[in-house]
Design brief:
Layout lengths: L1 H13 L5 H24 L6 H20 L4 H29 L2 H32 L2 H6 L3
Helix pairs in contact: 1-5, 2-4, 3-4
């Protein structure tokens, strides 16, 4: 997802023709999605199983991105942004809980350090690949090539 972050602003300005104020509002809507998802996670923490949290997040985060990528106006883009961040809060909660339950405390710091290094390398590679794709083909298709 971090690789696509650099494309979001360009897509919103060049394709959706949003000004800076509208893009800022769009980002605020994304913030509202993550807050709403986090509140639901907190309220129903005892009822939501880890596999449900991860599954919901893994399925609906890309759907939110696809809605955003195919949007032609602000409302569609806002819907996609809200859905992807709402679902992302479930995915993050599920994956972090899974790690905490399954990785021994003695190696947890080392595990997260190695995992963070690998993640950072992939972020750089995906950002580079998406940027090249956006230069070679249409920006909307460049963002979709990530999937």
């Amino acid at each position: 997802m971090t690789g696509l972050d650099s494309m979001e602003a360009a897509f919103a300005v060049e394709v959706l023709l949003l000004d800076e104020s509208a893009y800022g509002f769009l980002v605020s809507i994304a913030g509202a999605g993550i807050v709403a998802g986090s509140l639901i996670n907190a309220l129903f923490a005892k009822l939501l199983k880890i596999n449900i949290l991860m599954g919901f997040g893994v399925i609906f985060t890309p759907i939110g991105y696809l809605i955003f990528a195919f949007s032609t106006n602000f409302m569609a883009a806002a819907t996609g942004f809200y859905l992807l961040t709402f679902a992302l809060s479930f995915a993050n909660t599920g994956f972090l809980t899974f790690y905490q339950n399954n990785i021994p405390v003695e190696i947890m710091g080392r595990f997260f350090t190695v995992f963070g290094l690998v993640e950072a390398a992939f972020i750089v590679l995906f950002t580079l690949a998406i940027g090249i794709a956006a230069e070679l083909i249409e920006i909307r298709l460049g963002a979709l090539s990530y999937f």
